[in-house]
Amino acid sequence: MRRRVFLGLLAVYFGLPLLAALLYSLATRWTDTPLPDGYTLAHWTGVFAKPDVMAALGRSLVLSAVVVVIEIVLVVPAAYWSVVHNPRIGSIVQTISVIPFAIPWVVVGAGLQLVTKSVAPELFGTFWLLAAATAAVAFPFMYRAVESSLLAAGAVRLSEAAATCGAGPAATLVRVIFPAIRGGVVSGALLVIATAMNEFALAKILTGVSYETLPLWSARQFVSRTLGDPNALAVVTIFTFGLLFALSALVVWLGRGRVSASMATAPVQKGTTP
């Protein structure tokens, strides 16, 4: 009973703001009444017809895709080497992965701003600096997901079996390890996408209006008293939440399918074992 009450309170706590944003995105007019005076889809059709909204959405999606590629290329080999070939550095890497949580991202952005202006001023205010900074702060999400998948898949045993068959480290990582940890990589990529899509501090400090992402557009709508459109802001908020929720549901569904398939084939493998 207590568990149900607790879950109900959590649902109300997280659901009411989303419900309010959804109603506001559909409201024709909402003043001093508990519910809007009327409903319309004009805000939804109008928002995605605005060039600045579509441009900001496109920039956020491009940033998310680039950051995910950076994370996969850098984190997966590093995690594989840490777990399989050099477990002693595992504690060091885990300590490093805590740094983005310990240091506010505003401080990270300010530090990168000062260093870039002194060392490589041509990179200041560019997309690639923002992508590198976002990849750095999102590193723990990908690393921990990949590391957990490597340990669960028995990466050491798989690597030894591949080496026995004559495969080198690169071939083992690409052909053996990566398919086995694909679920962890996808889960980590989802967390990275959520981070990149919603990151405001780094984008504000490092690029600003020169690369206006969706969070920067939302902030501009929120603070502007003359040009702001609160209904459009509600539409973008619900759209972003729905996009990330759909991606999360897809990851869960794909993972459940793999587990069910493995459970279905387990008796056959056991029966065929001599």
TrEMBL record:
The keyword Acyltransferase does not apply. It is found in: Cell inner membrane; Cell membrane. The chain crosses the membrane at residues 61-83, 95-115, 127-146, 185-211, 231-254. It comes from Nonomuraea spiralis. The lineage of its organism: Bacteria, Bacillati, Actinomycetota, Actinomycetes, Streptosporangiales. This is ABC transporter permease. The keyword RNA-binding does not apply. It is a multi-pass membrane protein. SUPFAM superfamilies: MetI-like. It comes from the Bacteria. Keywords: Cell inner membrane, Cell membrane, Membrane, Transmembrane, Transmembrane helix, Transport. It holds the Pfam family BPD_transp_1. InterPro entries: MetI-like, MetI-like_sf. Residues 57-251 form the ABC transmembrane type-1 domain. Gene3D superfamilies: MetI-like (1.10.3720.10). Belongs to the binding-protein-dependent transport system permease family.
